[in-house]
Amino acid sequence: MRLPGGGCGTFAREAGWPPRLATRPEQPTMTILSSLSRRSLLAACLVVIHSLALAQPAAPVAGQAFVIADGSLSLEAPAGFDRTQPSSGLVETEFAIPSEGKGADGADLPAGRMTVMGAGGTVGANIDRWCGQFAQPDGGDTKKKVTTKTFKVAGSSITIVDIPGTYLDKPGGPFAGGPTIQRPDYRMLAGIVETPEAGNYFLKFYGPAATVERHADGFKKMLEGMVPAAR
């Protein structure tokens, strides 16, 4: 019998012979799982990196760290202290501290100032000199208003001196002469660092009393946190 359509070959093809091998269907499930695996791995890496970052000590704010004593001791200025160009050749490092509010005359309060420098003389002699830069509104003796605290840190002795009163400001510097500007309701916090080999260093923070009060704890913590500098 003649097969319709022109023979066995034609019939076979029409009948679907030889059977066509099924192609492998796409695997959307595997693709999704693969994508989820990559995301999970990335998330895990981020968690590890974040944990390692938290375990590391916080880096000093740019510009806040500075050294004294020929680079052998390191300190970090408090937040809010803005490093600025020293206004005198005697000053090694200087910071400006913005003030808030207005004075009795309605004008904006001047910024506070912290200077860092090496100097000679005994602790007592320098305290007496600084007392001479202040007057008391009641005419009293500034030396009776002074408070001090001494402690040891990083192999050095530090004396913190606190002097309130009317600051007798000499814009040209204490040795430049010229007119004196009386600045009432001022305060000075000074740290005298006595090092065993590099001599004495003075860190003087002074300005409107409200400005100094706002940063007083930060100034003290800065001194208490002094450490040997990495070489």
Structural Rg: 37 Å
Low-confidence stretches: 1-27, 29-33, 42-61
Q: How widely separated are the two ends?
A: 105 Å
Q: Helical stretch count?
A: 4
The structure class reads alpha+beta
Order of helices and strands: HHEEEEEHEEEEEHE
Overall 3D shape = globular
The overall pLDDT, averaged over residues, is 81
How many beta strands in the DSSP annotation? 11
The proportion of residues forming helix, as a percent range, comes to 25-40%
Q: Specify the biggest β-sheet.
A: 8 strands, antiparallel
Oligomer: single chain
Percent of sequence in beta strands: 25-35%
Verbal overview:
With 231 residues, the protein is of the alpha+beta class. 26% of the residues lie in helices and 32% in strands. The protein has four helices and eleven strands. The strands form two sheets. Strands 3, 4, 5, 6, 7, 8, 9 and 10 form an eight-stranded antiparallel sheet that branches. A hairpin with a 4-residue loop joins strand 1 (65-68) and strand 2 (73-76). It is globular. The N and C termini lie far apart (105 Å). The relative contact order is 0.15. The model is unreliable at 1-27, 29-33 and 42-61 (pLDDT under 50).
